[in-house]
Amino acid sequence: MTTTTTAPAAPTTAHPAVVQDSLRTATVALADLRGPVPGRLPLAHDEFVATLGTAGPGAPSHVLGRRDGGRPYDRVALSYRSGGAVHQRVWTLVSDHGADVRYELAEDTASRGSFAVLSR
């Protein structure tokens, strides 16, 4: 469920360069998404509830996650079919409060110009 991507080495510049950076990306399926989480779930020490926010009206979705090396995922990606085409939604990490980890929607390839992500 976790995919680690590695960025290529940055070119030499006058600014500090990042030589290597790894992002932890969880790939989920529609079946993994849950509605509102009822009360407190019994979680293992390395589990958390990921809240996947929406850019428009509607309730957020939730996914049960597992920490990788003590850290939550940096991104959560969902591939889905709509109108015969495969699309992808990507959420990025906003906050980590132990068992409650929040993500905001960063990209939805099915959007046709009426979608905007606003940072708070």
- Tell me, briefly, the overall form: globular
Give the number of domains. 1
Please tally the β strands and state the result.
Answer: 7
Largest sheet: 7 strands, mixed
Short structural summary:
By secondary structure, the chain is mainly β. It is about 0% helix and about 45% strand.
Overview of this protein structure:
The chain is mainly beta and 120 residues long. The protein has one domain (2-6, 19-108). Helix content is 0%, strand content 45%. It is built from no helices and 7 strands. It has strands spanning 2-6, 22-28, 47-52, 61-66, 75-82, 85-97, 100-108. Strands 1-2-5-6-7-3-4 form a 7-stranded mixed beta sheet, with no helix packed on it. A hairpin with a 2-residue loop joins strand 6 and strand 7 (100-108). The chain is globular and about 40 Å long.
Question: What is the strand and helix layout of this fold?
Answer:
Blueprint lengths: L1 E5 L15 E7 L18 E6 L8 E6 L8 E8 L2 E13 L2 E9 L12
Parallel strand pairs: 2-5, 3-7
Antiparallel strand pairs: 1-2, 3-4, 5-6, 6-7
What descriptors fit this protein?
120 residues; globular
